[in-house]
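Weekly sync notes, structure subgroup
Attendees: PM, AL, DS (notes)

Item 1: joint prediction request from the bench team. They want all six components modeled as one assembly rather than separately. Inputs as received:
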Amino acid sequence: MRILVVNVNTTDSMTKTIGEQAMAAAAPGTEIVALTPAFGADSVEGNYESHLAAIAVMETVRAYPEPYDAVIQAGYGEHGREGLQEILDVPVVDITEAAAATAQFLGRSYSVVTTLDRAVPLIEDRLLLAGLSARCASVRASGMAVLDLERDPDAAVEAIVDEAVRAVQQDRAEVICLGCGGMAGLTERVVERTGVPVVDGVAAAVTIAESLVRLGLKTSKVRTFAPPRPKQFRAWPMAV
Amino acid sequence: MRILVVNVNTTDSMTKTIGEQAMAAAAPGTEIVALTPAFGADSVEGNYESHLAAIAVMETVRAYPEPYDAVIQAGYGEHGREGLQEILDVPVVDITEAAAATAQFLGRSYSVVTTLDRAVPLIEDRLLLAGLSARCASVRASGMAVLDLERDPDAAVEAIVDEAVRAVQQDRAEVICLGCGGMAGLTERVVERTGVPVVDGVAAAVTIAESLVRLGLKTSKVRTFAPPRPKQFRAWPMAV
Amino acid sequence: MRILVVNVNTTDSMTKTIGEQAMAAAAPGTEIVALTPAFGADSVEGNYESHLAAIAVMETVRAYPEPYDAVIQAGYGEHGREGLQEILDVPVVDITEAAAATAQFLGRSYSVVTTLDRAVPLIEDRLLLAGLSARCASVRASGMAVLDLERDPDAAVEAIVDEAVRAVQQDRAEVICLGCGGMAGLTERVVERTGVPVVDGVAAAVTIAESLVRLGLKTSKVRTFAPPRPKQFRAWPMAV
Amino acid sequence: MRILVVNVNTTDSMTKTIGEQAMAAAAPGTEIVALTPAFGADSVEGNYESHLAAIAVMETVRAYPEPYDAVIQAGYGEHGREGLQEILDVPVVDITEAAAATAQFLGRSYSVVTTLDRAVPLIEDRLLLAGLSARCASVRASGMAVLDLERDPDAAVEAIVDEAVRAVQQDRAEVICLGCGGMAGLTERVVERTGVPVVDGVAAAVTIAESLVRLGLKTSKVRTFAPPRPKQFRAWPMAV
Amino acid sequence: MRILVVNVNTTDSMTKTIGEQAMAAAAPGTEIVALTPAFGADSVEGNYESHLAAIAVMETVRAYPEPYDAVIQAGYGEHGREGLQEILDVPVVDITEAAAATAQFLGRSYSVVTTLDRAVPLIEDRLLLAGLSARCASVRASGMAVLDLERDPDAAVEAIVDEAVRAVQQDRAEVICLGCGGMAGLTERVVERTGVPVVDGVAAAVTIAESLVRLGLKTSKVRTFAPPRPKQFRAWPMAV
Amino acid sequence: MRILVVNVNTTDSMTKTIGEQAMAAAAPGTEIVALTPAFGADSVEGNYESHLAAIAVMETVRAYPEPYDAVIQAGYGEHGREGLQEILDVPVVDITEAAAATAQFLGRSYSVVTTLDRAVPLIEDRLLLAGLSARCASVRASGMAVLDLERDPDAAVEAIVDEAVRAVQQDRAEVICLGCGGMAGLTERVVERTGVPVVDGVAAAVTIAESLVRLGLKTSKVRTFAPPRPKQFRAWPMAV
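Output from the run, pasted for the record:
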């Protein structure tokens, strides 16, 4: 089984990290192909870059030679999953939704802890549209940008762990979804300080994609995700 | 006052029609500038084209020389309004939301009647995210594609009017929002057959944009729509 | 175009203030007629006075000679809008709903800041019935009564501004609707301290009423707001 | 124990019927006082009359000499209950809410069957505000006006029974609340044809009022229903 | 009229207390029969014991000789009410739901104050399933276990009263439902400190059960609570 | 990895079928142990049997010797999952929830098709409590009992397939969850007739359980599913 894991930003080192996270979660026999979008921003922290990423991810996947069995969109709270489901037959899994759906099996409510405050509405919108917000206790931001994470990882981890603790104590979360990139030791620190299970979106998405493939399930094509109708495109060389 | 009205597809004749609808609704002294996206599909009837339109509309607006006072995104149920609000300071009005917000002042519930069945989920998602779905009685499709509208306008109008009648009688809608392009006589026919007010999204959006400008109101910049953070872009010459 | 703006209390000086607010927002060519109810309380701060105001506003409008093009009910969180829509054909706009509908175009969520705590449930009920509560972050009270506003305007303004700041910081509001009468400088102070757009209900209602009139839209008469059926009235000389 | 049961219209014969229904449900030792409003319409079938009834019921109760132990507002889907709770200390029970709250103990969902279609939104609004709509399967209208009930009672009963059957079969209601005046044999016919329990609002309200009194419970006065603040009234001789 | 009041735990002294509470609320002529389950835990503070109690209560009621007119399940937030409604024709009232339904007639919102934090989700689930959560302001735990209540009643009462005050001040509750067993003076202390009405679930359930019986209403048998279908049971001697 | 798959009824042949379904879905290296409850009904079609099954499943699991890595409760719409989560540390997966969570990755909405009408509310309640009802289009019953399935499998399959078609066409479901036991060829027939993906709960649950185990995730123990507190049990020899 081959799964494409598509980063939403153009930072190759992050694609590599995501690919490694995916591989660590993958079953024996699963091949992970980590892709960087052909165009876009070096990090996605708002709607403009996220909308650009949406189409970049679609075109990048479409340019990749078949066969593959599933696609994972590896951005937290980003636009575009519906488009991937429309242009592909194989299952598509968004890591925001994968984390939430997994968390719901582990406790009565979950919180997402992310980086910047401005990411919170994007994540909330994804969960609402995906029908996964009823048991979402909160989406919390640590106030740390992606660059902060690299510049002062200790402070960043601490800020994130603090929000996780608040989510458990004040918002009554029973599970934490980490809505930010793979920092060394982050998961362990959150588990240790909160005592609750911590779900990583990439890992969760890999197991869900594998499961769908193994069960022979594909995206429904009857209405919302029916293949695109034929169109004439102007000034967009990448179109089908 | 100058308002940009941006079509979501690349069919110039539709841009022209939309511009005329906007002008018909505009107050004296309002200048309407109708724009066709620099790239994209000739009609938008699904997520792939809609995601492409989202970024195309943003780049087209950004390439347009200031000053202008407000921007209208003239596509029914399309992605991208959040991005426009983020990159601009002036008010941004989506016609799907403008029609619904206007309809709510006219009756206890409203229905949207649109073309293809596959547009229904896109419209429902926009209304849900905009907080406008509580009084939405239904979103109904006539099954007619845009090309059908041109090929056999009489049959198309009839199919749309029939759905509007069903919305009023079966779904208890008290107002109809027309979620499809300007066909001659369509509004009149729906009013005549249903006896309820019919709201056109483009016209509604123009008056809302004018009102926001006149009241001196602009998009809030504290969180969700704060300006994009500085980024490095790869292979995307249009970025800021 | 002539718009009736009806105060809900019998204090003529407040009617005058409301009329001036309305005129300041009106387009050239719009005539504003500010009306004081023929009977009722000098201020409305609870259900008893509000129910009395509901019928007083209706009778006052009905006694006013036609023609007029729209009616605005200028009380925050008051009963009665449904009745006006029923007895009139022209559009009816409630300022509570006008402010909320306008705020939703400016940010992802809004809060209302009002005077007394007891007004909060009345406002929440209006927003719920109007289908405008999904994006309402909070309704907050400053604890100041109308008389307090006149007695110590500086303290009143300060209390209101403080609640607006809490709404933005704690409740994550991105827009503020002011649910209390026109105090000098209030809007400016809230904008200055919070950095978010502030919507005044009277001004918003005027532009919405003008827009509906210009678009030729009237209240739907198919069900909820069908004209009253003929009745025999006892001891109520004002009835139709 | 003395309970005031207040009709919402000025038809004395209906007050008498309501009083008899109440007495039939009352416990030994409960005194029922049926009151007709001092002013208002001979039947209430819309917002205008309902708003008039709201204030008429309040003034009628206030003019009635104490002591009494509870008040029942005996109109289906009418405005005004909040005002009564505000001006009184004793418990106030609305028959729409009493029927729904009672029905919820008897089955998983309930429907209301009422007379005219225009009453449906009024009833739905009351249930929504009262927090009783989650298990409401539907509110259905038979299309019969109050006068129809008297003119052709057999046809009226048949129309109502037919709607009740549809509620059970199509909407999956497990209990029926009758939202229309006491027609001879109506309850029995609905029970017979549907096989589900049928709740009469007046009877339910009497037992709830009695229960609250016996338990020593009164309306909470901390916020929403705190007593009215002192006011100056113009041209309203009945004010406190 | 004979009402069975069934404790959910096997502590006979608690059954006695519950029986006395029920008798204090009962009308003259109502016979209260307090039952202890034939098997189960000495206190129910979690799902395991609650599921055991669910079946124990059912079998205990079934083993009790008819006639009786109604059954009350006297555990706060426990499983099993649906099963009782299924196996019995007479009305079944759960005290969690009885308290909430009663509270809704007394104020705009209510909070439940209970003992252990782990009971909160159980109570929330019951209210959600019963359609009674729309006006629930909060469910709060004092952190006191049942044994704490006996060991240090003064501290326990104080902890509970403190949570009730927080519910009124922070969560805007207007009524308090006590979700914990009868401690001497508890109700009075909460009323005194909060100034809001306090509802005891057992007392509320008795009056509701009496009312349903007096009105001749029984559980609907059309779908959800239709009698069990005939089955073969293995290793369960108590089955029908 | 060893997964216990626990039937909810005492029919050994059904346990065998369920075990085979589970094995067909399991990854290489996963050992499936199918268990029949130690006591209970031969089929579960209502609340009484379901409550009995809840405690029977718990005791059966507890009596089974460790080690095992996850537990699946293989009944559609049954009580008891919360209790299993409380008494165990390993992940617990309910097949109703597993099917729904899986379906949500394949289409915008899903329907459940089950056997008897009386199972519908039980399934709806499970989905509501699990936070999985926002995208549930409908739960539909074919009217076929379990015994009918065996007696006339062709008619049963046809009735179920017909409901699935209605779910897709009338309720706009894009995925079907089969809420009834494994009939030969059922899945294929539904796929063939509806053209949408069909999810089997047992298979979905196996892959979810495997995924949780592989990711090292266990049930959160901070609040709702904290281990039971020590209790004294009366007449229940199976208690801990």
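Discussion: The domain at 97-201 of chain E is CATH 3.40.50.12500 (Rossmann fold).
Action: AL to compare against the crosslinking data before next sync.
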